[in-house]
Amino acid sequence: MEKQYSQLSLFQLDEVISDVVDILKTHKVILFFGHMGAGKTTFINLLCKSLGVIDDTSSPTFSIVNEYLTDQKETVYHFDFYRLKSEVEAFDLGYEDYLYSGNVCLLEWPEKIASLIPEDAVEFHINGLGDKRDIKIIW
User: How far apart, in whole angstroms, are the C-alpha atoms of residue 77 and residue 70?
Assistant: First the structure.
């Protein structure tokens, strides 16, 4: 399936977040594609709030992965693979334990570990257009 949204501002993301929350009921891994500054982390922060994350959310650029706890005692993993130089580093991180845990996994820069991605992962593409964004979700 595929759904597209056009010319959204930061204040118009409620429908997108609602749709992603619904998708997460059956697909636990979401791949976030977009150029630097497109709004991937911003969207993930809003999504985490909608999922009931009680921890402060931030970009895991230096730690590679952040673990958040929800108000329902569920775990959400947020990855930023931007700094990885090879897929071997993902193996060292123990990526399988995360991506196949059954917990929600939100991956920024998934192209860095393309061959390690689960087949049923959802693609989330975000493209910045000034203060507007085009979003496409494929699942």
Answer: 11
Q: What are the E-state strand segments in the chain? A: 2-8, 29-33, 65-69, 75-80, 104-108, 122-129, 132-138
What is the extent of the structural domain holding 115?
2-138
How buried is 120 (Cβ within 10 angstroms: 0-12 exposed, 13-18 middle, 19+ buried)?
Answer: exposed
Element (H, E) at 45: helix 40-50
Which H helix or E strand runs over 111? none
Instruction: Give the confidence band of 129 by pLDDT, cuts at 50, 70, 90.
Output: confident
Q: What is the pLDDT of residues 83-115, one digit of tens each?
A: 999 999 999 999 999 999 999 999 999 999 999
**What is the residue type of 47?**
L
Q: What is the mean pLDDT of residues 31-60?
A: 95
- Quick check: 107 and 118 in contact, CB under 8 A? no
Q: Are 30 and 106 in contact (CB under 8 A)?
A: yes
What CATH number is associated with residue 64?
A: 3.40.50.300
